Every structure is written in C-alpha cells, then in structure tokens.
Amino acid sequence: MIAHLPEALSLTFSWSVMLALLAGSVIGVIVGVLPGLGSALGLVMVLPITFGLEPAAAVAVLVSVYACSIYGGSVSAILINVPGTPQSAATVMDGYPMARQGKAALALGWATMASFVGGMFSLVLLVLTAPQLARFSLNFGPIETFALILFAMTTIAWVSHGSMVKGVLASLIGLFIGLVGPDQMTGQTRFDFDLFVLSGGFALVPVLIGIFALSEILIQAAFMKDASAPTVIEGGFKLAPWREWRIRWVTFLRSSAIGSFIGVLPGTGATAAAFIAYADAKRRSPRTANFGQGEPEGVVASETANNAVSGGAMVPMLALGIPGDGVTAIMMGALTIHGIVPGVYLFRDQPSLVTSIFLLFCLANILILVVGAGGASLYSRLLRAPMSLLMPAVVLLSFVGAYATRTNAFDFTVVIVAGVVGFLLRLNGFPLAPIIIGFILGKPLEMGLRQGLVMTDQNFLAFALSPIAAFLFALTALVLFQPLIKQAIRVLKGAPDGA
Amino acid sequence: MKRRVFGVAVLAAALAWPALAEYPEKDVQLIVPYGAGGGTDTAARLVQPHLEKILGTNLIVVNMPGAGGTIGATKFAQSKPDGYTLAFLPAGTAVMQPNLRKVEYNENSFDPVCMTIDDPVGVSVGPDSPYNSLDELIEAARKGEVSASGAAPGSFSHIGPVLLGRGYDVQIKYVPHEGGAKAARSALGGQVDMLADNVGLIKKFGLKPLAVLSGERAKTLPDVPTIDELGGPPIRLSIWYGLFAPAGTPQPVLDRLSAACKEATSLDAYMESVQAAAYTPRYLDSAEFKAFFQEQYRGNATLFQEIGLKK
Known about the structure:
The structure holds 2 protein chains of 2 kinds.
Chain A: H1 5-12, H2 15-33, H3 39-50, H4 55-80, H5 92-100, H6 104-137, H7 142-153, H8 155-159, H9 164-179, E1 181-183, E2 188-190, H10 204-223, H11 242-246, H12 249-264, H13 270-284, H14 296-320, H15 326-337, H16 346-349, H17 351-382, H18 387-406, H19 410-427, H20 433-455, H21 467-498
Antiparallel strand pairs in A: 1-2
Helix pairs in contact in A: 1-17, 2-3, 2-4, 2-17, 3-4, 3-15, 4-5, 4-6, 4-14, 4-15, 4-17, 5-6, 5-14, 6-12, 6-14, 6-17, 7-20, 7-21, 9-20, 10-18, 10-19, 12-13, 12-14, 13-14, 18-19
Chain B: H1 2-21, E1 28-32, H2 39-55, E2 59-63, H3 70-77, E3 85-90, H4 91-100, E4 110-125, H5 134-142, E5 147-150, H6 156-168, E6 173-176, H7 180-188, E7 194-198, H8 199-205, E8 208-212, E9 238-246, H9 251-265, H10 268-276, E10 281-284, H11 286-306
Parallel strand pairs in B: 1-2, 1-3, 5-6, 5-7
Antiparallel strand pairs in B: 3-9, 4-7, 4-8, 4-9, 4-10
C-alpha cells in the first residue's frame, strides 16, 4: 500500500480531482439533508456527470457524495424530526429532542464529529485489513447471516420508548409490509392481491418518507398553533466542552466498530447498524435513562455507526466485488463503468488506484467537518423560515425523492398511506423506529432462515453447528434476558444477607 | 377509387415522412428495469453514451426496478411505439419471467432492436473446493452431495443446475439467494458447492470455473473447456442483453436504431469498456435478434413446463 502512495498521490492531488471532491461533498450534504433524496439517489444523480471526468475525479465525486450524504441525513433528523436519509432514522430519537431543548447547534456538532470519527475509523480498518476482513466476511453464509439479523432484531426492544407491546406491534407492521412482493425463494410474488403495482413490493424510501416525514408534517399541521413561527430559534454549530467528550469516548469507539463490522458483513446495512449501535450505547451507558430525551450519546452512536458502515461496506465491494449494501452496489456499478472493476483482482492489478480511492475517501471524511461546520448556519437560517413555508417544501421534496427511487407513480400512494398510518401511530404513542427495523430486516431474516433450512435439510438445530451462528444465538439470548439475569444476580447476591 | 387510395397514401406518407426523417427529434427514454449499478444497468450505460452521440439526442436512462424487471418491462410494453421510449432488457426479464409468472406482456409486446451482449453461463465452484473438474462435481452429485447457489427459481443460475441434473441424471440441491452477488458469496465461502452464472461474474469473483455451457469457448475464460468438449449433454445457456422498442414501432425508426446500435457496438472505445467490465459483446441486428428472441421465449415456455416451474 505504502509503495503505491507516490503514484496514488499524483493521481489524487490535482485541481480537477480536488474540485470534484468539493463539489461531491456539497452535493452529498444537500441530498442527505433533503428528505427522500439519499445516498443512493445522490449517486445515481451524479453518475452521468462523472462520465465526462477522468477516473480519479469520478471516484472523488462518488466517494464524497457517499460519505457526505450519510452525514447530511442527520441535519434534518436533528432539526425537523425527519431523517434526511434512511441511515439517520436512529438519529431522530435523541437529535430532535436536543433541538427542542434549544441545543440544535450542539447536536449538529456531535453529529458532525461522530460522522467524521466513524468514517475515519472504518477507513483505517479498510486500509489495514480489507483483504483479510473480506475473507472473514465469507464465513457468513445464510445461517450465520440469519443469526446476525436475529441479533439485530433485538434492538427493537431498546428503541421502543414507552410501551414494549406497542414497539413489537410496530415492528410487526414493518415486517409484514416487507413481505409483500417477490419471494426470492420461489420466484413467485406474495401478498400482492393480484395487483400489479404490489408485485414489486414496497421500497424503503417511500415507506420511510411517509412514516417519518409526512406524519411529522401532519402532526405539525394538526397541532401547531402559530404557523408563522420559526422552527428552530437557535442554530449554528457548536462543539461540546471536552469533559462531555471524555465521558462518551467509549460510545465513539464501540459504535465505530459496530458500524464497520456491520458494513463488512452481509444482510443488514447502515440503517440497521445505526440502530444496533444506538441499542448498544443505551444498554451500556450510565445515562440510559436520558436516551430518547435528548442524550448526545444517542446521536453519537447512530451517526458514528452509519458513517462507519461506509468504509466497512467498501471492504467486500472492493476486495470481492460483492457490494455490502444497496448504496455500495450503485457505487460498484459506477466504478465498473469507469473501467475500475471491483473484484478479487482489483488490489492486485490496480494497487495505486485502490490507494487513491482510500485517499479520496479520507479527504471526503475530512470534508464532512468542513461542510458540516460551514453549512450549519445556513441550515438554521433556512429553517428560520415560517413553518407554513418550510413544511410544504419538505412535503414536495419528499414526494420527489419517493418517486425518483423507482420512477413508479404508485410510490406517491405509498407515501400518503404510510403518512396517515404514521400519523395515527404517533397519536397513539407507538414508536416509529421499529417499523423501519422490521421492514428492512424482515426479509433478509426470512431468507436466511429458509436458505439455512434448505441447506440443513429442514433441521433447525443444525444451525447451531456453525460456531459463528451459535455465538450470535447466545449473544441474542444474553441481550434479551439481560434484565432477568441482572435481577437474578441481585436476588442471589442479596439472598445471603437477607437470610 | 384507385386515385383516392393513392391520394390517401401520399397524404399519409407526407404526414409521416418528416416525423420519421427527423427521428429522433426529442429526448429518448431508455427504461432499464433494474436499479442503477446492477448488471443490466451497467451494460446499458456502457452503450448509452455512444448511442447518444450517434443518434444526436439525449438518451435518458430511467431505472424502474422491481419483480425481476417485470415492473419496468410492463411499463415499457404499455408505452407508445414511437421510438421515444426504448428499453434495455436482460434475457431474464424478456424471455424467462413471462414464462414463469403472470405478467402483462409476452413475446409479441416488443420489437427487438439489437443484441449487445451475450455472456455464456459457466459452471463454477469455490476457490477452495475439492472439485477440480466437472466430472468430479457430477460424481459427487451422484452421491447427493452437491448444492448449488443462485438467484430466485427460474433464473439462469437455477436453470443451469436443473439442466445439469437432467443431463447427467443427478440431484443437485438448490439454495436460492437474493441475487447473483449474494449467490456468489455463498459459493466463495463454501456454504454451497457450485454456482452457474455468466463467465464474467465467475472471473470477477475468482471462482474456480469447471465448464462453459456453450458450443464454443468463452473469450473471458479461454482455458475453460466447453460442456461439449467434456462429453456432457449439449446444454446451451447464456445471459444476453438487448435494446428493444415497443411492438408496432415504425420500421424506419427500428432500422435507424438498429444501425445506430451497430455503429455504437463496433466502436473501439465501447469494445474496450465492455471487455474491461468482463462482458462478452455480441451484436445481432433487428431481424436476427427477433428470431433469436422468439426461439428463446418459446424454448423457455417448454422447458419451464417440463421442470414444473410454469405459472
């Protein structure tokens, strides 16, 4: 890697590449901030523009759009209670409460630093261990993936504020809508009621837009007293004092690691990673009670993890040619069109190019800081617009984003129905995050289970023969029964004293 | 009477002529029934910029993914046959899905314009697999020890092991996956034994190729024997992509498109990019492609009936 640094540097440090990087990061933040337009759509949008560029500049645009769009999603999650991208769905839980307490600038500061740390952590992992990690990830077949997703499902318990029953019900709604459409095990469609529009199933973005964005707007419209009032009063960008950072460094580290590994492994992706990291932080933090009320650690966990996924997901994409998630799949297609074909031979055949991709990815992460700090005052100025102007604009953009994902007019209907459902659920105190968790994890969970059953001739117990799966099953049980175990330990410890 | 018919014909020609002569006079939509970055999208975007230059118009890629490409293909089949909506369809969407499930289009819904890529399917195993030849793999399958990964039933990666099983009279356990990349992952990791997929993919993923299901060797993997050379059943399986217009598109428009396609696919820049992306280029003109398309469509109808996959 070091040997190819000079050549990579000469590839990277040219005016056109730097300009491309800056343009990409601005575009990335914008598509991230705007609800409905996310990383995937951002990459699709810039793809035609990259055709006219030299490969290094094209890669610069792509990686900066990717890295910065994930960060951008946190801005709208914090400021208007609407995740700008699916990856930031977990950021809403503590980001928006912080903004309501007048700490929007602080929350943006945490989110920006968290995104940077997560991205850099995963980059270091990518540079140092990509081939080894890629090989390790191949140990995750269908059975191991099933076990991993099952573990990820336990996060539902930790993001269900208030009523656990309502959380589980919400996740079942998500699970069910995820089942509509093609069943990859049989090649047939399910639950489509012979309606053509349902034969492709539901896409994530329209559902997310409806559940989070439209329902929030409906709530605002229904209960807002003064439509001319500005959304956030205090804005800008502020970093918390050092002692605040010091007590939360574990979360930065753990969430970075969680995000990177989820990125490397198949089946889950950045949205789930953010929730897993959030649940992990909440479980472990001494400030557990503050989670959901505006605890910076919640923002940190979610934003560190989702940005850490970017580097992680690039590991199997670059080293194996197997994209880690939907976004890296688009990235891979784009690279292929530019004659950079990810796969087992890329590191061998084009080492200086790989090194320059790493360098660009590093610069893109640094630009998160620049664009984040520089743009913060702009966002808050934008958000000082009256609600009666801002919210319709958000609705419009949301619809555009929902449509653009699949260019399918049916997705308008999906947004509206999901919006009304989300509105009713919010009114009745249902947590919304479990819907998204159920939706994104339900199908891969089922696929893993059924694939595993075919492989083991319908013997579920044989799943435990895989050491990785057995470990993950044990971890799942441990996490689920943790409250009971803690209680039991307390009783056992207390018993001799009492006797 | 005769004069009137002639008059009408002249009038019709006069009305139609300028429109056709100037085709294309506005932007053309190119429906790609899979998401951006996928195999179909990449194949489409490799030829798209060249076609734009030759036709002198914007060719706007519209990704309409969902349900094995049938959502986009249905929208496409329902669009106006004026040459301003085209589609880039993979074989699976064009000739397999309609024989597998109830969809709103069939072999008469499209006018084939040209084929651009035709990738033979190869039989491969993981890099650490104990099997080093097709014979060894089949021998193991005879003992019921071989599993294959691939995409949903009715996909090429499924038909491959089915045809091998029929040809050699062996049982191969099939584990469907959510797509080619995930199927390749399971073959690479050794969770399943074999994968039949296009040779480009086999090469890219570093799988161990054992045979090519074609009459001649693949340019992408020149050292790999064909199934004929190995004395196996004459299985022919390839994943092709092509440009289509909706049925009823005027012949002059089809001819213009077919000629543009021929010019684009013979450019050096195009050839290089296609080969770098590990696709096998193959050009068929409108008439040849139509015959090929119909033969494939009907062949699959029979095959799916025989193996019990028919809707």
